[in-house]
Specification:
about 270 residues, 15 strands, 4-stranded antiparallel beta sheet, Metallo-depent_PP-like, Phospholipid_Metab_Enz, PhoD-like phosphatase metallophosphatase domain-containing protein, 7-stranded mixed beta sheet, PhoD-like_sf, Transcription Regulator spoIIAA
């Protein structure tokens, strides 16, 4: 299941009109199988509808549903959009565009089920995630390319992605100069988890949108396959926005409470 825990530290009065700081604590995970059973998809969308939260002038959060509106898992190499290539779906994409457009907050945080640029296979040939390997956008990536182009075209600033799914922690910077598709503004994505499940990873990065791994909690040479929580490879993340400078500080933290990665993001 997806879990979003939010804690606010506010020193101003009359929130949300006046706020001097925001703390956001995020831990997300869900059962992958739920999205594969059509009889449960409607129930899932009722439990976890697409929704947004406003935290005053500093922060808007838009939470997505990457299970209820997606097409089937295929090789994900289609050259044009169709029902098979739906991931967020046209209705949800339009909702997200409007939420981003109307947001007056300094930071726009998108909470997504899955990372943008990590390959998550389904069997030998199918793709579970939108990422399908290096190259130009194909399949479900076509939808993401449209969204990222829209964000750039409308000059929507300070968009950050928070996500989970892959059972390890990571920080990714998406650089259009390194991407096969370059018509987007650079952005950060932070992956946290698992909270109390087996640890895997790291997954292969797909260069379509130019992700650079600034941090990964596990390494390829570690051969991490379903390590139990007793190994200590459990992670969560925190986000703090300074009320005076509007700087966003993101931390990835392990089960012992040690900060394993930290970065300050300056607003545009």
């Amino acid at each position: 299941m997806k879990i979003l825990a939010i804690n606010n530290t506010l020193e101003g009065k009359n929130f949300p009109e006046i706020s001097t700081g925001v703390n956001l604590y995020f831990i997300w995970h869900y059962k992958n199988w739920l999205g594969h059973f059509s009889i449960l998809k409607s129930f899932y969308s009722l439990l976890f509808p697409i929704r947004s939260f406003n935290y005053g002038p500093l922060l808007d959060i838009m939470m997505l549903d990457m299970r209820s509106y997606r097409g089937p898992n295929t090789e994900n190499l289609q050259t044009s959009r169709s029902e098979e290539t739906e991931f967020l779906g046209s209705q949800q994409i339009e909702w997200l565009k409007q939420q981003l457009l109307k947001s007056k907050a300094t930071w726009k945080v998108i909470g997504s089920d899955m990372p943008v640029g990590l390959v998550v296979p389904d069997g030998d040939t199918a793709a579970e995630n939108l990422a399908n390997g290096d190259g130009v956008p194909l399949g479900k990536e076509l939808e993401m390319a449209e969204l990222l182009r829209f964000i750039k075209g409308k000059n929507i600033k300070n968009v950050v992605w928070l996500t989970a799914d892959v059972h390890y922690a990571a920080a990714h910077y998406y650089d259009p100069n390194l991407a096969q598709f370059q018509d987007f503004k650079p952005f950060w994505e932070f992956v946290s988890g698992p909270l109390n499940a087996g640890t895997f990873g790291p997954n292969k990065l797909d260069n379509t949108f130019g992700p650079v791994a600034k941090y990964q909690s596990v390494k390829v040479e570690d051969k991490v396959v379903n390590f139990p929580p007793s190994q200590g490879l459990q992670f969560f993340g925190t986000v703090k926005i300074d009320g005076s400078t509007e700087v966003m500080t993101v931390k990835l933290i392990n089960i012992e409470g040690k900060v394993v990665y930290e970065v300050d993001l300056l607003p545009e």
